[in-house]
Amino acid sequence: MSEEQTCDLIIVGLGPGAESLATGAAEAGLRVVAVEKHLTGGECPYYGCVPSKMMVRAADLLAEGRRIDGLAGEATITASWEPVARRIREEATTDWDDQVAVDRLTDAGVTFARGQGRLTGERTVAVQGPDGATSTWRAERGVVLNPGTRPAQLPIPGLDSTPYWTNREAVQATSVPASLLVIGGGPIGAEMTQVFARFGARTTVLEAGPRILGPEEPEASALLTDVLAHEGVRVMSGVSIAEVGYLDGTFSVAVEESGGRRETLHADQLLVAAGRTPNLDDLGLETVGLDPTARTLAVDERLRVLGADGPVEGLWAIGDVTGQGAFTHVAMYQQAIALRSVLGEGGAAAQYRAVPHTTFTDPEVAGVGLTEQRAREAGLTVRVGLVEDLGSRGWLHGGAGQGLVKVVEDADRGVLVGASVVGPAAGEVLGFLAVAVHAEVPVATLREMIYAYPTFHRAIESALADLDDDG
Ligand SMILES: Cc1cc2nc3c(=O)[nH]c(=O)nc-3n(C[C@H](O)[C@H](O)[C@H](O)COP(=O)(O)OP(=O)(O)OC[C@H]3O[C@@H](n4cnc5c(N)ncnc54)[C@H](O)[C@@H]3O)c2cc1C
Ligand SMILES: NC(=O)c1ccc[n+]([C@@H]2O[C@H](COP(=O)([O-])OP(=O)(O)OC[C@H]3O[C@@H](n4cnc5c(N)ncnc54)[C@H](O)[C@@H]3O)[C@@H](O)[C@H]2O)c1
Asked: Least CB-packed of 36, 137, 152, 198 within 10 Å?
């Protein structure tokens, strides 16, 4: 163990938020040490948002090409995974090398330390490098934790001894399997299912819950399920997986449906996308009185980590481990607030009533704020407006214009507390509703607006009109 070194701020785990925070803190004059054990920038640029959205873009192009028949002539589409794999390797991840990101940090004046960081007490961190050597640091201001998550390992008999994919292997695929089983119908499972199916894999998605995209509005899940089924995907919900095997290049998955029917499915590849495990178990949390087995770190509105007796001295956390939405935009939002807190500055505190999200299937599934069910559980007087088509624009769009808009009103206050949009560019249409929920624009004001014809967002006007019909 080396002699303790001193700095102002240590950042452990460099997800997208921490990368920004490190640069900002160094630019503000702090001596910053940034610790990363794998790839600087975290899951999003190397295994998450960026490569997966390159895959989605390619799959959407194929689908658009296939829609030419009957709308604009004839097209013969020949799918090839080669440009997708190449773009991910060369443009997105530089072959999963983070040197550019490390250089960006060091150019900004940050001291970069490659290794596993662990708290050893208040404001102190030990960093174990790849060679096993350990350096120790004391930070005068404190420590920011941004360790993120890893794919959850399911305790399914047989699974661990098979070469199954998680999102990390899926984005590194150099070819498309002829057949694919996907365990988990959350955002990762839904996006990957559609991508590989559109590239020709016979795909089945296996979801334990009653429907895919379970936290979304049921109407949104149902619409996406229909679209996937129409594209030839088998969607099995309410299943439990008894066993997984692998023999001679083929996976076998024994599935029990809710009615008790058993079936063994076979495929060339298995993708497990069944949730995430927070990287909190090897972070030395116990040395500052925190529980290393917790699923999230409680934080206050300034991102200070909360212990049993209030904020832990000199300790902040940002990103997925705070449990406020596992999205890059949440981590980025939080880093700016945490940085101001580290620097002793004020400014707006964190609040999460209008966290937007988009699952990049086609149609996209986007939401903000509360679903109808969550609003009812919160005890609000709820009115709901729902339109299950996208009006003239949906029809003009041809085959792929299906969608919906659902708005959830707190009727006592006359403001929207949540909304969902499914459709082409739903994530963009959602922007309007995110403003409405965030700024608590009165529903009466939203109804006075003029909605351009024929846009997708015009369906919002119809959904607002439908609020009147709700009991
Ligand atoms: C397939 C996929 C698609 C996604 N798509 C989207 C999307 O479209 N939009 C969106 O907003 N979000 C998306 N996400 C979620 C997004 O990737 C995360 O929310 C985002 O990366 C923020 O995570 P984070 O900052 O908590 O940490 P992470 O990105 O998980 O990074 C944490 C970093 O900390 C490092 N680390 C952990 N422990 C230690 C330690 N003890 N010492 C040193 N280093 C450590 C890890 O190696 C990692 O690099 C997607 C995720 C996946 C998996
Ligand atoms: N477009 C986006 O913004 C985007 C895309 C991908 C991921 N993400 C983020 O990453 C997070 C993780 O994504 P995820 O899809 O892995 O996790 P998730 O937790 O959101 O969904 C996992 C799904 O797997 C199911 N499941 C769990 N155990 C199962 C089992 N044994 N058998 C069958 N099904 C099982 C769950 O019921 C759930 O529907 C998301 O919650 C999201 O915040 C965002």
From this structure: 152
